[in-house]
Amino acid sequence: MLSTLRRSFAALACCWAGAAAAQALVNEPIRPLPVKTVGDPARIALGARLFTDPRFSRDNTHSCASCHQLRRGGTDGKALSIGPDGKPARFNTPTVYNSSFNFRQTWTGAYTGVEQLLDHVIAKPAVFADNWDVVAARLTRDERLAAQFKDVYGDALRPAYVRDALDQYLRSLVTPSRFDRYLRGEAGAITAEEERGYLRFKSFGCAACHQGINVGGNLFQKLGAMREMPGLEASGADLGRYQITKRNIDRYVFRVPGLRNVALTAPYFHDGSVETLEQAVELMFRYQLGRTASQQDKELIVRFLHTLSGDKLVPGTPP
Ligand code: HEC
Ligand code: HEC
Fold first, then answer.
1. Which domain CATH number covers 102?
2. Residue 315, pLDDT score
3. What's the predicted TM-score (pTM) here?
4. Distance (Å, whole) CA 74 – CA 263
5. What is the rounded distance in angstroms from the CA atom of residue 258 to the CA atom of residue 177?
6. Closest approach atom of ligand 1 to CA 111
7. Whose CA is nearest to atom 25 of ligand 2?
């Protein structure tokens, strides 16, 4: 009797799961993050260790985590981070969370991959002001660390392994949120108001640019796509991708930022000039869409954006 009951329960459970899977939303402009990340745990752990290591900077003042603070959404809350040279960086520090899903790295999309980006980070005065050989030599003097590299890579500590470990670690910084559960069809994962915000986000056209797995990060677009944005400088950082390509068509063009964890990463825009999410949304309506929206629509969209904050930010900690 009991076993029959158990069997029919099992059958029920099977169909329930089937029904839930069938309800996963399809044809949405935003795709859910993977539930599990792949990667070698030993390399990831080594990368995590390097991420907080101040020996990357000449004067031992800065680690990656100085500017990319995991508990602050992967940024440092400043408009522009200050590097070891005491000068502000050129661009607002983007989050490291989910950054491996971006088609290019940095605001101007200067680098196709993380390894290329890291070469730049090490040498840049505003970040570390050093070079790989010096950094590798300094790290190798730490016998325990050198031994760890030997364990993991079966070889002496080399810049290529440092890059690889950091790359693996960055790939592990994935932050699924309530919104991903909503996309997978979980009832009640987001509130009715948040869902209305998402519908506005789509119907007004935000999702034309902020889309895909990172809710952005897969397109270049002009800042001021529909209406010229006042106050942009005709030189320097504001020129965006033009800095790299020198093509007029790329003036004021940026990689569309991903909006995952955006509620945690103020201030906003490439120069950190926009203090609140409400202001950012307002400016997007005006200059990227050339539209006006009611206060209520903007508020609903902001509520939706909050659903993109990861359930847990620091790997290994409870949500
Ligand atoms: C002094 C502050 C600072 C430090 C230290 C720093 N970064 Fe950054 N990081 C930045 C800034 C600023 C940018 C954006 C640069 C740009 O857009 O040109 C950036 C961009 C990135 C990006 C690209 C993200 C994206 O979405 O495009 C990644 C990945 C990254 N950093 C990882 C690291 C790692 C790993 C380290 C340590 C080896 C590190 N950073 C150290 C400030 C810093
Ligand atoms: C035509 C493309 C486009 C459209 C449409 C668009 N955006 Fe953006 N969005 C961008 C670009 C490009 C940036 C980067 C601005 C900068 O670099 O200064 C951005 C930045 C943002 C930011 C700041 C992110 C950060 O980390 O600094 C938010 C928030 C945002 N958009 C939300 C929205 C919302 C909400 C809508 C709809 C009302 C929208 N966007 C419509 C292209 C677009």
1. 1.10.760.10
2. 72
3. 0.92
4. 12
5. 14
6. 27
7. 268
